[in-house]
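ASSEMBLY PREDICTION REQUEST
Request ID: AP-0331
Submitted by: J.K., bench scientist
Number of chains: two
Total residues: 829
Priority: normal
Notes: Please return the full assembly, not individual chains.
Input sequences:
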Amino acid sequence: MTRHSTHLAGLRALGLMGLAALWPLQGCTHDLLQVTNPDIIENVNTPSGALALKNGVILRLEQVTAGLGGNGPDNLFIYGGLLADEWRSGDTFVQRNDMDQRLFDPTNTFLAGPFRSLNRVRVQGQTAISKLRQYSPSPASNIGLMFALTAFVENLAGEYYCNGIPLSSANPDGTFAYGDPISDDSAFALAMATADSALAYQSGPDSARVRQLALIVKARALLNRGQVAAAATVLAGVATTFHYDATYSANAGQNELWNLNTSIKRYTMGDNEGGNGLPFSSANDPRIPRKIGGPVFDSATPLVAILQGIWGRYSSVQVATGVEARLIEAEAALQAGQFTTWLNALNALRSNTALYPVPQTGYTSGPALAPLADPGTQAARENLMFRERAFWLFSTGHRLGDLRRLARQYGRPVESLYPTGLYVKGGLYGNAVSLPIPRDEQNNPKFVQCSDQNP
Amino acid sequence: MSDEPFFPKWSWVNSVRLRGAFGASGVQPGTTDALHFFAPKTSNVDGTDAAAIVDSSLGNPNLKPERAREFEIGGEATLLDNRISVELTYYNKRTSDALIARTVAPSLGASVTRFENLGAVVNRGFEGLINARVIERAAFGWDVSLNFSYNTNFIADMGGVPPIIGTTTSQVQGYPINGWWQRPYTFSDADGNGVITANEITVGPSNVFVGYANPRWEISGTTGFDLLNKKLRIEGLFDAKTGFYQLDGTERIRCQSRLNCRAELDATAPLWQQAAVVALRESGTTTQYGYIERGDFLRLREASATYELPATVARAVRADRLTFTVAGRNLWKTTKFAGIDPEANYFGGATGIVSNFQTQPPPTYWTFRLNVAF
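STATUS: Completed
Returned structure:
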C-alpha cells in the first residue's frame, strides 16, 4: 500500500513537471501559427506601399490601353478598334471574328478581360488615392495622377460600352458594393468630376504633366457630352507637344498592338473596311507608317496582313496628347462656324512634321501632309474633321467613341459610319455600335443587361 | 442477418447481410484563400521599371471549411449455392459550406474568382453490383457481372450567394453543380425551302437549364465464357453512361469560326444542324444551345481472349504455365451524340464538365500478351 502510494505520487510529480516544461510553449503557439508568406503582400499601410500601389495603377493602365488587356492579350485600344474600322481580325479565334463582324454578344469570352482591367485601374486607383493621402501625401501630384488615370478610364467606359455600365467596388470587410448600372453620359460626368479632383492636387515636380493630362481627360468627357465649346476652353493650357504615355518593357509587359498585329498577325490594319472604313493603309499617310506582311494568322481568312509601323515591341503609346487638344479646339471652331480657324488648326498640325510618328525600321511612311482646303459643305467638313482625328489618333482608343459621337451628336446613320455589308468570313456585318458588358457581370445582382445599345 | 433465428431458412438463400454507415469529413480552404492581399509586379513608370503592387486576391474573411456528412445503408446477399451475389447501397451526402471558386463580377476590378462557401450541395443515389456464375461445368463456364450506379446532384442552398453565371455552365440553387445553361431556341422551315434562316429561328429571352454535365447512370457489365475445358476464356466489358449532356465544342468552333462544318457548306444538311449554326452565328443573341447534346452511349470497352497453351509447350520452354492473351479496347460504341465521341473530354477530370474541343476520342487499340509462369 505504501509502495503503491509512493509510486502514484511519483507519477503525479512527473506529470506536473511535464506540464511545467510545456507551459512556456503556450506563448509560442500564436507566433508559430503566424508564418509570414513571402509571396503575398497584405500590408500596404506604409509610404513605400502607397507608392508601389500608385505604380500598380500605372501598370494596370498600361495593360488596359495597349498591353495585356485581361486574361488574354486583347486590350481596349485594339479590341475597340476591331469593332470600329481600325483593325480587322485575321484570326482563328471566334471572339475576335465576332467583334470584327460587329456581333453584339455579351457571351464573347474576350470581353471580360478588358472590362475587368478597366475597372482595376478605377478601383485600385481609389485604393492608391486613399493610401497616398494617408501615408505619402507629398508630392500631391501623385494623388492628382491617380485621379487623372481614374478619370481616363471612367471616360473610356462611357466611350466603349453600351448604356448601363455597372461600376462596383469591394468593401474592406470583404463584402461587395455592387454598382447600379449607369448611362454612358453619367460615366462622362463622373470622369469630369474625377478630372476636377485631379486638378486639385497640383504641387510637385510632375504637376504640369498631371494637370495637362487631367485637362485633356476633362475636355474629352465634355466633348463626349456634346459640350465642345466648353471642352475647347478647358484646353488652353495644354501644349501641342504634350503627351502622356503608357510605357512598356520586357519586365512590365510588351506593347500588344505590336504583338497582335506586327508579330503574330492575328490582327491586320483596317483599310476601307466594310465600305465605310477609312483607308488607314492605302492613304499612304505619314501618321500611320505600315507595310504588307504576308498572310494573316488564319490561312482561311482571305486577307493580307497590313502591319503598323508606329510601335515596336516595347514602344510607348500616347494615350492623351496635345494634338488631341488641338483637334478638340478645331472641332469647337467648326461647330461655331469659324471655318478658317478650324482649317488653320488642322493645317498647323499637319505641317508640324515633328508630330508624326517615327516609323519602325523597314516601314513605309507617306510624304509630309499637304495643307487641307475647305471642302465647302458642313457634312464634308465634319467628315474631314473626324478623318483627321482618326489618322492622328490611330489605335489610341478614340475611334470607337468618335463613330458613336458621329451618330449621337451629328445625326449620322450608324450604317453610314461602321463597316457594313458582307463580312469577309461569311455572313453579314452585325449592328453593334459599342462593346457589350460581358456576361460575367451577371454575377453582379444589380446587373441584367445593357439598358440600350444606342450610340 | 441470415444467421438470426427469425430469418426464414430458404434453400436458395445462402446469406443476407445488412449494413449502415455514417461519416463526416471536412476540407480546409487553401492557406491564403481567405486573405485579401496584393502581389508584387514590375511597372514601367515613364520608361523606367519600378516596383509595383497590384490587387491580387480579394480574399474572403468569412470563408469556412467545407463540411460533408454522409450516411449509407445497404445490403449484400449470396444466392443459389453462392453462384449469385448481390450488393446494393443507398447513399446520401450533404456537403455544407462547399468551397467553390466564384466568378467575380468584372466591375469590381478585382481577381477573376474568389473562394466562397456555397450553402449546401447534395449528392445522393445508389450503387449496385450483381455477380452471377450462370453456368459452371468442368468444360464450360459462363459468368456475368453488372456494376451500376445512379446519382442525383444539386445545389440545395446557395448560402446567400447569387447564381454564378458562366458562359455555358452556371451554379443555380436547385440545379446540379456545373449544369449546362443556355438560351434555347425553336426553329421552323416556314418557307419550306429546306434552308433555315435567321428569321426562322426564335431564341428564348434567357438561359434555361439544359442538363447535367456528368452522367447520372453509369453501368458497367462484364461477361466471360470459359471454353475448351477452361483453357480458353473470352471476356467482354461493356460501359454505358446516360443522363448527361456534352458540349460538342469541336463542331461549334468549326461552324462558328472555321466555317467548314457541314451545316455551313451543305444546303442539304439536316435542319437541326442548320438551326444550330444560325442560332450560334446569326440570331443576334448567340447561343450554343444546339451544340449541347445528350451524351448517352454504350461502348464495348474491352474484349479479350486468353488461351492457356498445352503443358507440353510450356515444358518445352521450361515453364510451368504459358498463357497468351489478345485484347482490344474501345472497339465499338453506339450513341446519338453527333460529335466525335461523347467521352472525348477537353477538360480532363479537372472540372467535372465533359466538353470536347478538337479533342481526340478514346483510341481503339490492341494488346498481345504472353504470360510465362515458372
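REVIEWER COMMENTS: The mean pLDDT of chain B is 92.
SIGN-OFF: pending second reviewer
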